[in-house]
Design goal:
The chain is an alpha+beta fold and about 160 residues long. The chain has helices at about 15-30, 90-100, 120, and strands at about 1-5, 45-50, 55-65, 70-80, 110-115, 125-130, 135, 140-145. Strands 1, 2, 3, 4, 5, 6, 7 and 8 form an eight-stranded mixed beta sheet that branches. A hairpin with a 2-residue loop joins strand 7 and strand 8.
Length: about 160
């Protein structure tokens, strides 16, 4: 399995297709959440993903401050069902935080997390800044990380 981090314009057509296909599979089909997946933000995002053969097994997109929120952010986070509980989600978030803080020099990161993942994100230092609310009929909570995340992955 290999990790890749690319701007939108650097994605191959096949990579973009596989990313969109995987996001639809997780967010629309698996979660039974019918919403507009193509929101016009992919073009300004960095795309961090892990491939196994021809499949995208983990993914998130990263925004510099001012693009999705006044703060930097990441979203559309997933690990394909058959790859969960193997530490891939933790590695994905560590890689995103490392890039955002060392390459983009972001100091505050805001996310919109599914509420059941609040403790997962808290383990990286994120703190809840909202009450739980529904977004597309799924409970969410806004969270912010201020300062450096100390447990970076260095490889």
């Amino acid at each position: 399995m290999s990790w890749k981090l690319k701007r939108f314009e650097d994605l191959s057509i096949d990579e973009l297709y596989k990313i969109l296909q995987a996001r639809m599979s997780v967010f629309v089909i698996e979660q039974k959440c019918f919403y507009s997946e193509l929101d016009g933000k992919d073009q300004v995002a960095y795309h961090l993903f892990k491939e196994e053969g021809e499949e995208i097994v983990a993914y998130l997109r990263i925004f510099s401050c001012g693009l999705a929120y006044p703060q930097a952010s990441f979203g559309r986070v997933f690990v394909q069902k058959e790859y969960r509980n193997q530490g891939i989600a933790q590695e994905l978030i560590k890689r995103a935080l490392y890039f955002m803080q060392t390459q983009l020099h972001e100091k505050v990161i805001k996310i919109q997390a599914q509420a059941y993942l609040q403790n997962f994100y808290a383990s990286f230092g994120f703190k809840a800044v909202s009450e739980v609310y529904l977004d597309d009929d799924i409970p969410h909570i806004d969270m912010i990380l201020e300062g450096k995340y100390k447990k970076f992955m260095t490889r």
